[in-house]
Amino acid sequence: MKKYLLLPILILSLHMQAQQKELPYHEIPEYPEDYGPGNVVARMIDGLGFRYYWATEGLEKKDLDYKTSEEGRTIFETLQHIYGMSEMIMNAPESKPNIRPMDLSALTYEDLRGGTLKNLQAASQAMAGKNAADFESFKVIFQRGEKQTPFPYWNMINGMLSDCIYHAGQITMMRRASGNPINPKVSVFNGKLRE
User: Fold this and answer.
1) What pLDDT, in 10s, does the model give residues 78-115?
2) What percent of the chain has a predicted confidence (pLDDT) above 90?
């Protein structure tokens, strides 16, 4: 009888491990060969991806609905906000316009989490190996109707990229307050789980 109980647990465990491997940033990628500007930004994006992966891993309904005050965002609303910024981070190297307003109401937790991680991975890959001159053509472009407002990539660094890191920390704090802290083996310094 015990063997029959262990089989479903083993299958569930293997399924969860496979899901973790499918999404990027379960571990931070190997670092680049040099400290060129594109590689430094790519590494910042990778660091965000790793933090976000573990801040959002295993969130439950009670966590997604949690907020610290009546005026604050829920964790789910914070995921929506980060997803929108991850698209901007991904679009900047191609100077692709970010159409506003964005409707994210149809996206689930899984959609937001997976989409954000994949957007960050694509952005990191687009930035890898870029030199300082390349950055001159990278633009953050907001578009409302026919009107486009461009900004230099500098605004991405102090804007969306920094803001996403900040919000990943908020999710970590809020899920702890809701009773579901992140995996204690996460090492952001090493970019992987401690043994």
Assistant:
1) 999 999 999 999 999 999 999 999 999 999 999 999 99
2) 88
Q: Report which residue type is found at 43.
A: R
User: CA–CA separation, 158 vs 145, rounded Å?
Assistant: 26
> Which residue in 98, 118, 97 sits closest to 107, CA to CA?
118
Residue 32 neighbours by CB under 8 Å, 6+ apart: 39, 42, 43, 128, 129
Dist CA 170 CA 168 (whole Å): 5
> 174 Cβ partners below 8 Å, 6+ apart?
63, 66, 67, 68, 75, 78
Best CA proximity match to 78, nearest among 91, 89, 64, 90 = 64
| Closest to 53 measured CA to CA, from 20, 85, 78 | 20
Instruction: Calculate mean pLDDT across residues 4-24.
Output: 59
